[in-house]
Predict the structure of Glucose-1-phosphate adenylyltransferase.
Amino acid sequence: MIDPSRQQLSRHSMAFVLAGGRGSRLHELTDRRAKPAVYFGGKSRIVDFALSNAVNSGIRRIGVATQYKAHSLIRHLQRGWNFFSAGRGEGLDILPASQRVEGRDIYLGTADAVYQNIDIMEGYMPEYVLVLAGDHIYKQDYELMLRHHVESGADVTVGCIEVPRHEASAFGVMHIDEDQRIIDFVEKPADPPAMPGNPDVSLASMGIYVFRATDLYEHLRRDAADPNTSHDFGKDIIPAIVRGGKAVAHKLSDSCVRASTEREAYWRDVGTIDAYWQANIDLTNFDPELDLFDRDWPIWTYAENTPPAKFIHDEETRRGSATSSLVCGGCVISGSHVRNSLLFTDVRCNSYSELDHAVIMPSVDIGRHARLKNVVVDRGVRIPKDLVVGEDPALDASRFRRTDSGVCLITQPMIDALGG
């Protein structure tokens, strides 16, 4: 038995990252890639946040379950997360659905994805297992959550975020007592239960769970043998433990990682076009809520070999400039102006073009005199010269995917459909 007061629990733990979901509310952004592989923050992919939290917390044994259109995700993991040393007992295993159960070649649910890989997990002989969602943006020290799990004597510890009660109907909500024990788990309730002593706030599940490894295997095997479950942690495993065991809630605010400029616990589900655009644009603020410049808790990723960003031309109406923006390596701002925008690697903005509150993915070319406002542009798109987006709502909606709040998603097939 590990004494939590004397040893780092993360050294005896394994992280299992669930990264197989499509993220259908991101629409065309996930036509070619799974949600965890979607670009975020200029250099990263969404999955990098869960993986970086694990590594920064001291966890060196990680499994990543993939399923939907996994090629770009697998390639990213192979390129950016290949620094583990097998000689030191470290490793990152990529675990695609692969007919490990006779008669099917897919994961039936989140619990089934872990169940099908029990033998691989047992090979690492972890004392504890963290099951992590691979599609959220946050910084968290899992060592503190592991310590809470051990000290509470829980069968499972569920990571939770505090949300306004009137917004909690969109989440799975934990009903807890004064000791943070979960007494009920309610999926998207019309009347969410409030936290004790705080009637305006509810606790929503982050999709993060801590188990003692042997307990987890037992729960998974029992669930796999039951034909009447959906083989899902949130729908089956956790409610069963709440009813028959001890489930404890762990608030993100108790283990989140904050730089000096970060005031509150940061967690985002960037699962819609609006949420994705807003979270990226927020990074351009003077003091963003998420600090990517925090060297004490870096977000590790595949670092592309790119030249520095370049700004050229200095004429009155043709000046390469960027204000309140993040511009990554390989970008050329050639006689155009960029405002409140985030440009991933190898973006070319040609003369007289303008970007305003734009999220531009890698290898995009912006044609001359184009004006783009409130947009997300997918990787590799060629924006034709003179294209204007963000000034005529009806015209935008007829050509691109436009949200109710006015953000336009632009992909190459949409551009090709314009003709001319």
Notes: The longest helix spans residues 213-224. The chain has ten helices and 29 strands. The two ends are 70 Å apart (CA to CA). The first strand starts at residue 13 and ends at 18.
